[in-house]
Structure formats: structure tokens, C-alpha cells
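Q: Here's a chain of 208 amino acids. Please give me its 3D structure as C-alpha cells.
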Amino acid sequence: MVQNGGTEETEQATAIEPLPTARPGDPARVTLRPIAGHDRDEFLGLVRASVDLHEPWMSLPATADDFQALLARYDRSTEECLLVCLRDTGAIVGIVYINSVIRGRLQSGSIAYAAFAPTVGRGYMSEGLELLLRHAFEELRLHRLEAQVQPGNTASLKLLRRHGFRKEGYSPGLLFIDGAWRDHERWAITAPMAGTRPTPPHHTQPAH
């Protein structure tokens, strides 16, 4: 963040710089960028508008304090909170997370995602997930991503299948969401399964 002598315009321009996930001729209508403080009002408005869409599948920050806690949590190198935004307007249409990144011999992370009600059903989250896979496998050089989804969340399960995730198991009472411990299916994908560009191993991966 720009401190002494910086302007608000400079700070915001830096914050909204999209990740370099696009390719020449890429038809994607969306980009990914890190969430930032100036997103608060737009983000919280979208959360309020999407309560019926998200419950009981996902709990998102709903107050200013919750939003600040979200920013603080993801101000670390092992986790990322990214917004899915329209290329032409910059409007927020979804959110994606990369959590619990473990390096060494595992090179794995866990993902979560949510669309927002005003633009749901237009394919934006499918394009956003494709960009997330590129970012995770080509730029972060992870080997594997996991996703945990409640069995009744058919839209989310359909999205994972579309992008090549495979079901690996079922965990009763896995995550505490919307006031209860919820059962989840566990899905995963590796870089070779995703068909992303081969990259050199991350420097933390052992040679043998």
C-alpha cells in the first residue's frame, strides 16, 4: 500500500492490476485480481444481494469488520483471495480463494469460490475457474488443487466436473458453515489433468 506521499489513485491502480493469466487471443470475458480495501462497498453489496444464492453452501463477509478481517487473513504468502472481474468494466462477478498451500513434496492447495447473484448463470465463474487453474499451476507452480463441496450444491459440482476435477472421497462434518458442521465431497485436480502449460518445479520441491 502506498504510504507517505502516495495518492489514492496510484494505490487503487496498483491494487486492481489483474493477474497475468490471459493469453494472446484469449476469449475470456473476465480477469482475476487480488481483493483490496477499496472493494469493500461493492463487495458487501454483492454479498447482501446473494444471500439466497450462497446459503447454506458458503458464508462470506457481510459487515465492514468482516471484510477487514478477510483482507488481514489473506495478507500472507500461503493464501490468496482473488476477485473475478469483467474485463470491460471491472465489475466484480465472483470470488475465488487458494487456501492452505503446502509446499515441499505435496505442492498442493485448497480452493473455494462463489458467484454473485446479479451476474450468475452467464458462465463468468467457469471462465474465472479456468484462470484460477492457470494461476495456480503455471504461476504458483502447484501440483494439485483440492475443492470441498456439499453434496447438494449441484451447480458447484457441475463446475468442478466441467474443469476436469475428480471425486476422491466423502467427509462427514468436514466444515462449519451457516451454523452447522456440513458434510462435503472432496474433489481434486493435478496440473497434468488440467492440461496447463508445463512449468519448472517450485524451488521448494525436493529434487528426489
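Q: Can you summarize the key feature?
A: DSSP finds seven helices and seven strands in the chain.
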